[in-house]
Specification:
Layout (H helix, E strand, L loop, with lengths): L1 H19 L4 H31 L4 H8 L4 H11 L9 H24 L1 H12 L6 H14 L8 H7 L5 H28 L1
Helix pairs in contact: 1-2, 3-4, 4-5, 5-9, 6-7, 7-8, 8-9
Length: 197
């Protein structure tokens, strides 16, 4: 922190000297280098502080004025642009688009799962009741049994997909069809979202 304060002090001195017309080239170049270092450090602090504020319960509405933006959507967008990508997007806007695509896909799949809850629960019940499974397959079936106790049928989809490699015959085919439908819904939701933007 003392180093940051020292860099900031040298930048202030260089700005004052530049305004007074007394700054030399070395002083100005040093100040510009320091400014770049500070900018890099600040860029790392902002998403870290936003993450901490969200974890502490701050809403996007509360954060918007602190971030200098007018809406909760703009605050969240700023945060997403600053976040490093975990899926390979190179730009901030690409990260925002990827997150919005993911959310649109999640909503579409969750809506479909709720409309098809009876089918999903019946299929999950069949898989979780299988006997004589290998340890990895049994672990998948057990996770599926736990998910059956959840109120939201969308929570059955990940453990069903995880169980798929351990299933054969009609049961494996049905679970594969459901996984394929969820993937199709995600792609369609992302495409629909982009066509509206």
């Amino acid at each position: 922190m003392d180093e940051t304060a020292g860099v900031l002090g040298r930048i202030h001195e260089a700005v004052a000297a530049a305004r007074a017309g007394t700054a030399d080239q070395d002083q100005l170049v040093t100040a510009l280098s320091g400014l770049r270092l500070l900018r890099d450090e600040l860029a790392g602090w902002e998403p870290e502080l936003i993450t901490a504020a969200r974890a502490a319960g701050a809403s996007w509405v509360t954060l918007a004025p602190a971030l200098g933006v007018a809406s909760r959507q703009a605050a969240e967008r700023r945060y997403l642009r600053l976040q490093p990508s975990s899926t390979g997007e190179r730009t901030g806007e690409a990260r925002v688009d990827a997150e919005r695509d993911r959310r649109a896909g999640d909503r579409a799949v969750a809506d479909w799962a709720r409309r098809n809850a009876a089918v999903l629960r019946q299929l999950a019940g069949r898989v979780s009741a299988l006997d004589g499974l290998a340890p990895a397959a049994q672990a998948s079936a057990d996770r599926l049994g736990v998910a059956l106790g959840d109120d939201d049928p969308a929570n059955l989809l990940p453990p069903l997909a995880a169980a798929r490699p351990h299933l054969t015959g009609d049961l494996g085919t049905r679970v594969g069809e459901i996984s394929a439908e969820a993937a199709r819904l995600r792609r369609a939701a992302a495409g629909n979202r982009r066509s509206r933007d």
